[in-house]
Specification:
Length: 124
């Protein structure tokens, strides 16, 4: 049960924080969500974040018993992966620098929070 609770809490952090950050960025800069049906967009985001939460929690469970495991390093590696991904997206078409910055801010907030959640619910 604690694994399911951990997944749900991590998913909530990964899903809600970007909505708040992108909402604030939209209010400040005017960036717009992708065109089309907003429900379809949010459903796609939810599915993506559910998979990320599954990997974040699942890999934590596998790695936490490894010698030298560090929650700080674990979170830092995820953060690095996601921030580099934002830079890569910003270099391509259809993704602005502002969106990448908002993504980086989101990741800087939700990944440490997700790590904190796991240290409380699934201790090392």
């Amino acid at each position: 049960m604690s694994i399911l609770l951990a997944w749900a809490a991590v998913f909530a952090a990964l899903f809600v924080i970007p909505i708040l950050v992108y909402g604030a960025a939209s209010a400040l800069t005017g960036i717009q969500p992708p065109g089309g049906d907003p429900r379809a967009f949010l459903t796609g985001v939810a599915v993506s974040k559910a998979g990320t939460a599954l990997a974040f929690v699942g890999l934590w469970l596998v790695a936490r018993d490894a010698p030298g495991f560090s929650p700080l390093i674990y979170v830092a590696l995820w953060w690095g992966m996601f921030v580099i991904g934002e830079v890569g997206q910003a270099l391509g078409p259809d993704y602005s620098r502002t969106e990448a910055i908002a993504g980086g801010i989101s990741e800087t907030l939700y990944l440490p929070l997700a790590g904190w959640i796991l240290t409380r619910l699934l201790p090392v």
